[in-house]
Protein 1
Amino acid sequence: MSYQLDTTVLKATRDGFGDEILALGKENPDIYVVDVDISKSCKTNVFAKELPQQHVNVGIAEQNAAGLAAGLATTGKIPFVATYAVFGSLRMGEQVRQSICYPKLNVKIACSHGGLTPGNDGGSHQAIEDMGVLRTFPGMNVIMPADYNATRKLTRAAAALNGPVYLRFTRDAMPAIYGPDEEFVIGQAKVLEEGDDIAIIANGDTVRLAIQARDALVADGYSVRLVDMHTIKPLDRDEVLRSVATGRIVTVEDHNILNGLGSAVSEVVAETGGALVRRVGVQDMFGQSATYDELMEMNGITVENIVTQARDLLNA
Amino acid sequence: MSTTTVAKATVEELNERARHLRSSAVQMIYEAKSGHPGGSLSAADLLAALYFSEMNYRPEEPTWPDRDRFVLSKGHVAPILYAALMESGTVDPDFVHTLRKLGSPFQGHPDSKKCPGVEISTGSLGQGISPAVGMALAGKRDGRSYRVFCLLGDGEMQEGQVWEALQSAHTYKLDNFVAIIDQNNLQIDGTTDEISPNLDFIKKLEAFGYDAHEVDGHDMQAILDVLDTIREADNDKPKGLVLQTTKGRGVSYMEDICSWHGQAPNEEQFNQAMTELEKGLDL
């Protein structure tokens, strides 16, 4: 099966979270949302209105939000702390470590505005290191869905998993990749196309770029393996090994190339050998106010650069 | 119908309990060759009052949903909590020899994965109070009648998260939440006045919407009286309790000495401490 972009359906992953968390909350009174005064941006405002008994808004106090959620979890609740990725990873980072991961509590950190999507807000609001930080906390699961439907399914899967999960969503509307019936398993990559010459492994919003790069390479006659690695922890090591079998891997992410998807894949390849890896992602530099596309261009997170990196590997 | 399995005790009995807790904590720290005696001893009388008079819980069923909860936000004084858990029968007293040793439920700082009766892992200061507020909020939402007692150090009040948490307990009208400050006026690098003055905790708590009380943290009758007042208050306010205490209380050479924040006694010091705690200081 080969997956294509459906540009007639444009939806943001944060909306997928808002819709699914509402559905989950209606099904299960133990599902809670803990907000920090940005429920409109995080799309939890409808949950807040419809399920006030399962909703908490602590105000602008992220550290307290994480700890309070941990306390709720000790009583059997399943709290989702909703904030921006830059705050959900770093502002409450130690609380997530000490009060959630260390005691192994069933708390989900659900973050909008991951990566460079909050372009106009500037570098202060662009989380480029969040997934890397979170994946070094023992027991944490780290997920970034590629579209609206993937978000709904992975949010549901996160609620069903008994343990801490970091979910990263983005602000802007993106084309659809998956239908509403597509199934997702945390820790199990989606293979969007089988291929032998090279593998492209992407996650989040950049899967759409990887799909377009795949189209260009296939048009050149190459056989491309295309992978949506929606979970970077636990990493689907078996899928990385299948990608290694092509001998060439390009990773693509809207995250620092240090410590994110590209690093996670490279850690496996360094142990196994058998492939060269090129990492497309944020070039270890802070962003600035600009459009999302301009910032992606500055970092080379583009269809053209994915194709260039792939061709370099194919011609090596 | 729920029952209290820990019987109410007299002041005399509670003072005896407090002496046991102090001895047990000092012994653990001596055997471990590290730990935090000063703040363990300043909090001992409060823990005796909570665990053997005030709190409703079941030592044989530490996860009983309706139990009152105690959260030790000043997690470094774990030995006094472990002493109370052993004394109450929640945890096997043989663990007294295992503090800070591989595989022990008695980690250097409380670990809720390893030790029954520890409600949430703590040790990074300022952080225990937020889960305590979460527990109190869950109790309200679930219609349960339990209360949550959270013990903080006065130095710990320098952490910003404490004030975020205090504020949120007021927001949600958590009258089942009791924030207790162990004001012993010392921290690692010196007195709190030297490092960052406490100022007036009562005024601060009242400004945050709390029903605030102050008590001599080593006067058992006074502690019981103020806990009565707190229990009987019928208002929507969270409760604050400032304990005026002496760090190292009960061991003469530790009392009010900053360096006993985090060091273990040697053999001679240990023997002296045990003797003093056995007969009680002439205070």
Note: The mean pLDDT of chain B is 96.
Protein 2
Amino acid sequence: MIDEGLRSELQKQGVYTTTLEELYNWGRANSVWPLTFGLACCAIEMIAASMSRYDIARFGAEVFRPSPRQADLMIVAGTVTKKMAPLVVRLYNQMPEPKYVIAMGACAISGGPFKQGYNVLKGIDRYLPVDVAIPGCPPRPEALIHAIMTLQEKILKQKLTGPDRPRHLNADVPGEYPVPAYGEQDLEPSSNRDVWQPPVIKR
Amino acid sequence: METSQNSYWVIVLLMVVAVAFALGPLALAWAWARFFSPNKPGKDKNAVYECGLESKGDAWVSFRSEYYLYAIIFLVFDVETIFLLPFAVSFGGPVGLSVGAFLAMMIFLLLLVEGLVWAWGKGVLNWK
């Protein structure tokens, strides 16, 4: 690995150095393809973000793929009902690695204004590993663009080797998350304990 | 001497470069998937994509040939409608369509209707 000071000095002279890892991460950070997948009103903001006024294409993320086979970003845009939750998880499982999740809006994060509803999932992070969460009800397109930039920063920082390498490069980590089933009262299981632990309440 | 000056070699070279240009990225992607990314197939990942739902039955269904026959018969009258308007506009004078033009068009229509009657008689319109 090149010394940062030397690298900066070289850059001043017009010599740019890079590593394969950086080049690879730069390539995939700038071509994040989201899945065409809107659940509720946040999807309207997502559509607005992809249109000419906000133009998500500037970040290489305009290619909304209608099939999970070609997508690597799932924008969970809207309220996830318990009826829809297994479908969301299954779609996530059908996406190829490496894949990322943006939870867009209050509903996708926590259930939002419908949190007390019997039929609403209280946050998609109960089943999926969320990379970026955007608050707001709904978040403006600028917020979604900010989330994509945050995700790009995250991708750029990922190390491809070592013990904390991303899961898609680790052969031991399973590629799929368990899909919840429709139960009598609730989804079964009601959360995936590998990705989400209920907060401990101390009285 | 003769072959070295053959100007068509440029085309061959261009073709080789074009094929390499197309296959190169695919080969790189394959090599990356083969040597760096672990392959992780799974039950859900290999399942048929149906908007996240579990697909019922086999996705490899065959469509009935009646659809094809219906489409052909529909197409005849679809094209006929496209013909009718320009015909009426170009042959229609200040006093309207002449009797001869009207008859000519009716004969054209009759030929098409004959085709429909023939297909009807053959039992194409019966959905089996």
Note: Residues 10 and 16 of chain B are 10 Å apart (CA to CA).
Protein 3
Amino acid sequence: MAVTDAPRIVTSRLDYDDSHTLERYLATGGYEGLRKALTMTPEAVSHEVDAVSLLGRGGAGFPAGRKWSMLRKAPTSYLVVNGDESEPATFKDHLLVERDPHQLVEGIVIAAYALQVTTVFLYIRGEFALGLERATAAVNDAYGHGALGRDIFGSGFSLDVVVHPGAGAYICGEETALLESLEGKRGFPRIKPPYFPAAIGLYGEPTVVNNVETLSNLPWILVHGSEAFTALGEGRSTGTRLFALAGHVQRPGVYEVEMVKTTFRDLIYAPVLGGGIPGGRELKAFIPGGASAPWFGPDQVDLPLGQDEVGNAGSMLGSGSVVVMDDATCSVRAAWRITRFFWRESCGQCTPCREGSGWLEKILRRVEDGQGRESDLELLMDISDNLAPGVSWPPQQTTICVLGSSIPSSIASAIRMFRDEFLLHIKDGACPFGSHGGGSHG
Amino acid sequence: MTEQHLHPEVMARAREIVALYPHPRSALIPLCHLAQEQDGWLRPEAMAEIAELVGVTAAEVLGTATFYDMLKTEEVGTYVVAVCTNIACMLRGAYELLDHAESTLGTRTGSTTADGVFTLEDAECLADCGRAPCLQVNHRFFGDVTAESFDRLVAELRAGSLDDTVPPHGTLVRIRRDGGLRVDESSLAAERTAAATAMAERAAAAGTDAKAGG
């Protein structure tokens, strides 16, 4: 086991019950990173962030420094914070917004200073009522403390932050859909190019969209320096990362671990982390990076938690969620539920996704219910091929955004790994894992 | 002039929210939340007034609102109980919990109890998977839910003993923004110039160190 003694970069205050208050934040070194940043030039701050290879923690893993460097120079530009966390089994930003909102606010001001933007929109998932209240209180307190508003800490730099509630739509985590939503519209992803809002973003102006966890790293980086950060992890995957561990483990939860030095085995089995699988059961499969990611089996459990390492193995670290399934899990049912999610959350703009997701859900449902046919396997793969030609990894796209091309991941994984299980459902006319609750809810 | 549907104090808050954004339409979703706080759901009369406030048609407000799960264009109960059934919760018994919820509340998923108190929903991932199976009541989290704890929760909601933690449906954020309304553009421009001058002075005073980020 290699659970390292890496420092806790973004979760250092979570042992305190009052971790969300300004008092606790100031008593634990809060706003020191911002004070340091304000003594530097904006370019130097950007350089510092570029130097640490801070890969975006939202899902795509794009380096934050490079994203910043692409911001088109214009009289008006924006920073938008993506706090619309809704990827299934991802619950780390929820924790950061609720439990350490000042750390996020400080990260926001540092980023805004580096980018020289004067208005920030903090878009938080609407379902996070407590998170929205904590973020609003933190923003209020930050204004009172002089960390927001006019002439921050006497530096001459001024900034406004507006906390903006979402209203329940997974697709708004896609950054161009988020911008549409922030403009008061349906959350329809925008056609690319332009690929990055850094060219044309909110209200058509250059915009940087950063994830909550990404920005929450900035105060520590400013205080401790880029070398301390790059000393952690390996290759491009530097620092620590939050992993949201869910499903069949003794201790589901959010864990901050050093990248690459920690493996999936550590995360799932280490007593201080997941604590293993309950009930003496065995690992059947795990999803390494959100519902959009292809599944892994027990033979891949020793892979390191690194972006490139997981990418080269045919999946992705994605949003940092790991779903563990034990050997009593029905793979058809798991694939069905994930597909049902995509069907419900498809925005409906593109035909392959809007129609395909529903067909796939219905076919998987009938296989699970024992009404499937042998030709259904081929049919599932054929529809998948219309969503992501070749059903390869990374997927090809036939839709405006990657939601559509993500749908086949779980289906193709389940069929590849557990084909016999599908056939058994069809042959026996029933789920071999027995009846489940929820028969009437499909 | 016809009578306003949104109460004067709600209208005043609505105008404050509109003023936070460079383009009024950005306030559309926050104003829908505000209207739900007043009415519990999004009434057509409210949508018409929101349309006026943000400069679009009522149809555009409706068209936007229907995209979002949290904005209810039909009446819902005082308590909207959303049971997560996505993968992480399903693996830990969410559908069994949903079956139990239906029998306790005596209503089907997607409908409201006859007394108008509870609406039961089957939700997508609510991002509290460390405490799966989880649910929300009016967007307040309850985790590690069992059949027994569900029944207790329902009894407590009926008795009103959770009124402090779970406000009626529609009330999302009970903390009001009280700092830093928008800085006007001319003072921003002046501050930017002053900041650039100050920065140049600091850089000159610190020599090359400042450039290296020290």
Note: Strands of chain A lie at 78-83, 119-124, 160-165, 207-211, 233-234, 237-238, 240-247, 253-258, 283-287, 321-326.
Protein 4
Amino acid sequence: MPDHEHQIGQHGDGWEPTIVAFFCNWCTYTAADLAGTSRLKYPPNARVIRVMCSGRVDPQFIVDAFARGADGVLIGGCHPGDCHYIEGNYKTLRRMALLRRVLEGMGIAPTRLRLEWISASEGEKVARVIREMTESLRALGPLNLPAMRRRWDAELIPDAVAAPSDVRQLAAEGR
Amino acid sequence: MRHKEHAGNGAPRVGVYICHCGTNIAAVVDVKRLTEYAATLPSVALAREYKYMCSDPGQALIRSDIAEHKLNRVVVAACSPLLHEHTFRGAVESAGLNPYYFQMVSIRELDAWVHTDGVEATRKAEDLIRAAVQRVIFHEPLETRRVPVNPNVLIVGGGIAGIHAALTMANAGKHVYLVEREPTIGGHMAKFDKTFPTLDCAACILTPKMTAVGTHPNITLWTYAEVQQVDGYVGNYHVTVRRKPRYIIEELCVGCQECIDACVYKEAKVLDEFNLGLGKRKPVYLPFPQAVPLLVVIDPETCIEFKSGKCKKTCVEACGDRGAIDFKQTERLEEIDVGAIVLATGFRSFDAHRVPYYGYGTYPNVFSALEVERLVNAAGPTGGQVVLRDGRRPERVGIIHCVGSRDENYNIYCSRVCCMYSIKLAHLIRERSGAEVYNFYIDIRTPGKGFEEFYRRTLDEGVHFIRGKVAQVSEWATRPEEEGKLTIQVEDTLAGMIRRIPVDMVVLSTALEPQADAEAVRRLFNISCSTEGWFLERHPKLAPVSTFTDGIFLAGACQAPKDIPDSVAQAGAAAAEALAIIDAGSIALEPNTAYIIADDCSGCKTCIPLCPYRAIAFSAETAKAEITEALCKGCGVCVAACPSGSIHQHLFEDAQILAEIEGVLAAVRA
Amino acid sequence: MAETSKPQVAFYWCASCGGCEEAVVDLAEDILGVVDAVDIIFWPVALDFKRADVDARPDGSIAVAFINGAIRTSEQEEMARLLRRKAQLVVAFGACAHLGGIPALGNLWERGTIFQRVYDEAPSVTNPEHAHPQESWSADGHATTLPAFHDTVRALDQVVEVDYYLPGCPPTPKVIKDAVGAILSGTLPPRGTVLAPDIALCDQCPLKESKPERLLITEFKRPHQVEIDPNVCLLAQGLVCLGPATRGGCEAVCPRAHMPCTGCFGPTSRVIDVGAKMISAVASIVDAADAGAIDGILSTIPDPVGTFYRYSLASSRLRRRTPTEQPAVAGAEEPD
């Protein structure tokens, strides 16, 4: 659907970063709603996925988001000591600490993964964090792993041999 | 990865509904284009737009489409799910489809209201809708869990709000535990002499209610007590209350106060807390004459028996056969089960020491407003006389508004009640002492019923109102008439000049602030605080008495500064909402619990220490982990941690979230 | 070529250590049963058939092609595609074909860096002319070619469609025997299945009972730093044992030999990135609450990428290090 493709090019020519944001229901998502009811304005680069607790955020989600084209991943949870489920955010803190080391080793700039503690009344902080992260990603440039994978895969032979579906066709014919 | 097969009701047929929300969404987001886009998404059977999806016709549209078009999934793109997810689930359910085959997308709070570029906002909405459509395909039918509700109620705080809530619920036949930190209930209102604007005697309207609380068969009153621990969840809270020792056996004391008369201290020497240090008491004391319960308290810090062990204990002698004094009393822990909790812990007064240029604590005749309430109170330390520290009558009194309020250096907010109480004190001071009274204000805020009239009356009585924020209060005289006086320096903004006004007494109208331990208290109850530290209501407009923690309600000034009628109204509202839960008999819990697929579990025990509710246990029999559904709160921490992907969460399955991630990023291309 | 009625079977090795070939031989006497039941028509390590022989066969005429090793060169890619055309079933044999294996750790660098290291900088190398392998070279009127060396290592299913996976580094004799038996008797699970139990290793580990129910870690250790108690769960002793995240089926050979599981059987079917999942599990049980203390404990895992993605880097969601963002991995001696 070409109409709905975002412009990704060399950074600087109309490209905008895409941020996938996991917000915990009780604190950060509520604060994001507050930012909305207060009509605060911030850049439209974030896509919020709601979870009940930041502790639900599996590192698999984060690597998947990067793999699918996110330029940045933001996780919003309650301040330490305030987690609605008592200590879910501590688990998040620990997981992000280890994941960040691995991401760094995989060549992904550590500023692309951001963990923020945002309480239910901090609507202004939601706006500020998204604004800051958008600006810093604009300066850093796109990650765009899908495009990178296509470039990496250019070294493969274009598929000149019969597609595997031929084999299945043959098998279906009993050969 | 093998994605979870979408659950059981045939190939997915998704109905997508885009709400205009009047112009709230439609003014920024191109809803027509969105609807066209949604119709092109895989598995979408139809896409519609409508002005107000949450209205009856909007919901009817969903119902009729489900029937006519055999929809088995519904997505609504509108306001926040925190507002209307429940509404739309209800609409889906009433059409005979399981309510959890529904997903809501916020394109208002998270999109139209926060972005100005319509093209970008629409693009973002497309991504969010696509994600929701992909997610909802993986939804499963779920049953709402219902748990029984304990009919008892806990009210924390025995001020006017707590008292009113307690009486309302007790009269409705519920058993109420009212826990108050001070030795008596009454709160701040018990300290006032008259209340604005009617100048009703505070004690006259309060004490009957206090007495009613003390004698009500349905109220268990624990004063001098604090909540120590709260476990459980709405409908089933288990609370531990710590009752501090008064060293008096409550059942035996009749409040005769002979022990106080007989105390070896002939004179009262200890600064009296109730009178804010303006008066004195003995180590054995009654907080004030109308205290409820009418029980004395022994202060172990100042009582000779506690300090040296060698007192004649004339108090015990005076108590005689009743034998109500027990120096060996220890604190007691009470454990109770309640279904709902109302927090009515009130406020604290701004500490005027923090504003050094007003001289509080430096000049003896600078008083806080609450201190002056005690002075004008007939039962107070000066018998209702407005006098200076040396006993003289003041001839001129200055009242400074907004001390600690509307001030970037302290609290930005307006404390709502101070203009009215400042006007009230102006009236009372003038009445009692005949002094010239000057009120220094930024704005006069008198919005309530009868408030503006009260202000007019006070103006007519000759009280001077000067518009200007006072710069300083000082004893330094620059002119002869300032000698021996406290001079208030202020810019009179209406007259357009700086004025220096010498007075004998200065009254500081101090702000209302959250209690000092509000942070600790809110953690205890697992609720949130706003940035200023007030307990946070669920919604500032539509849910001012409930919190984000089901079953915990707010009443009175602990939620935000307010006056007595508003506190009482809010307390009634909190009581009503608590009663609604209790009378429903059972409570519906979101079915977002975690569950383990036993065949998949390897018994690695990674999850066991992670659950803060101990909902996961290791079964020695099966050598696998097991989750007790009733204890699970649905945080999902164990789901994320399970290294073999054997724990799932209803409503937040990996497949659902991964579908959402795929959906929001689908448009990213090179 | 004589037609037989026995199913025809091919073995091929890509970027491989040879361990998977040995694993077949390790079937010991059971191998006789296999040899009896099938006709091996291609097995470079053991038999003298050539690529041209495979080429000459009709498409789909090979019953099963067992391919081990990761895809690192264009030749390996060509052979994989050829065997895919010629075989009805392609089985990814061993961790390298299944996940990328140890060779996939090469994805932390690029070809240029690797060649520089191997041909110029390695301590025991003398190469004053900086001679590096070339895809084609002419000398004395003769032209020679070498396969292209890919920048990125791939698992087999990133190049051809794979029907089944035999996990392990190498797959254990039992896993191989069970799989071959299933293939020969036609009792196979759905296409795409990994032919080993779909449950984590702890299920089969003899040390499971000794694992405490509430295990929280204050320090991680490496095997040489601990006098390993053979009767106590290895993770409980501070060793990073990936058993909880790793598919079982190997009967816990490594823990039984007092070494922590390194994850060679890969994830269960419910996991999309096994490194990320183990990161989640390990970090969740770190016994610290503030960032400083957490970092202190995590720094006792010196090489997190190598530890959590030892066999699975190529098939992880990120696939390889993104070369443009940062210089080479901290700690590696590249003058990049």
Note: Chain B has a mean pLDDT of 94.
